[in-house]
Amino acid sequence: MKRTRSIVKVGDPTSTNFVRFKKIGGGSLRIGGRIIKRNEVFEADPDTIPKLFMNTLIPLDAMPVKKDEEVEEKDVDLGYSLHHRGGPWWDVIDKQGKAINERAMRIKEAEDLLKSL
Predict the structure, then answer these.
(1) What's the CA gap between 54 and 23, in Å, rounded?
(2) Residues β-bridged to residue 35
(3) Residue 115's pLDDT is what?
(4) Which residues partner with 82 through β-bridges?
């Protein structure tokens, strides 16, 4: 008779977002008082696994999406603005006050460059 291993649950038992993983890297991984060896399948909360060891694991189930990882489009001010150099000449400067254009530009060219950023 062949001996089979049951799937090991690691982490907080009250957590509902357990994901099945398979360890593919060499060595052993210690999580929650358990030793996970190579090619072993186990269930764990992704928050309990150190980020350093995630490259040695393959998730067998879909990973839960966290709210802070969701992509949201926000208006982010990159800090670029127009600076009048004198006469008809303008510069586009960043937050540190450094001009990003090589030569001074007319107002129309400077506004177009600012919109493209």
Answers:
(1) 9
(2) 30
(3) 86
(4) 92
Q: Name residues of the chain where pLDDT drops below 50.
A: none
- For 79, residues 6+ apart whose C-beta sits below 8 A from its C-beta are 94, 95
Beta bridge partners, 44, equal 10, 19
* Bridge partners, 81 (sequence order): 93
Task: Please count the residues of the chain.
Answer: 117
Selection from 82, 88, 84 nearest residue 100 by Cα: 82
CA R_g for the chain: 27
Six-digit token pair at 43?
């269930």
pLDDT in tens, 10-23: 766 666 788 899 99
Joined together, the tokens standing for residue 62 give 């879909």
